[in-house]
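Re: that chain you flagged

S.,

Sorry for the slow reply, it's been a week of failed gels. I finally had a moment to sit down with the sequence you sent. For the record, here it is as I used it:
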Amino acid sequence: MLIHHESDGSGPPVLLLHSGVADLRMWDPQWPELIAAHQVVRVDLRGFGKTLATAGTYRDADDVREVLDSLGISRTAMVGSSYGGRVAMEFAAAYPDRVTQLILLCPVYQGLPPTAALKDFAAAVAAFLEAGQLDAAVDLNVQTWLGPEADDPTRELVRKMQANSLRLKLVHPDGGPETSEIDAATIDIPALVVSGARDMDYFLAVAQHLAQVMPKARQVELAWAGHLPSLERPGEITQLLLEALL
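Prediction finished late last night. Pasting the structure tokens below so you have them in one place:
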């Protein structure tokens, strides 16, 4: 299955992977400046944006590989936000020779047990969806994952992206990606792990853990950021990416 994607620009390739409450539109603020210096690819993973959800299980990393193959890209840097960070690590673990570096913005990682705050959030979202209260589930996601720096248009965009994804996934509620464990210690690739001081405690612990166990990782913590810094202060993250990309 070839998932929806966009590609533009020229230069060293960069792949952008969206968070679990967004789709490829989350990278709109970074897109113009990145494509001025790089060949940039962004995708809608299954069940997000313009890519339909499917029945059964699949591997997001293999969908990404198919896109890169279709574009003739053998090696690329990967930038992943939240869930997109997990996909980037999955791809790097499966295809290490195809990744030049990783930039992980508040990444998801299943190698640590969930905190009480994360459990409470997941239970609340599940209860809303079970009751058919889609809008309430969307609102809780927006309130939880966007930090105080995000403006109203950004909050509305995230609300639209998340609502679209939840509706797509309701078509195939039993479908979803495989969730095999990743041993971060085996990802021997230059990596920048970005965390937000205003993010949920679980993701602060994840960033610290990854920076400690990944052989070539370093961590940057942003005092102002919540879980989605590229949407909260897009200009600062654009500059961070341009400076960090090799």
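What I noticed first: The mean pLDDT is 96.

Talk soon,
D.
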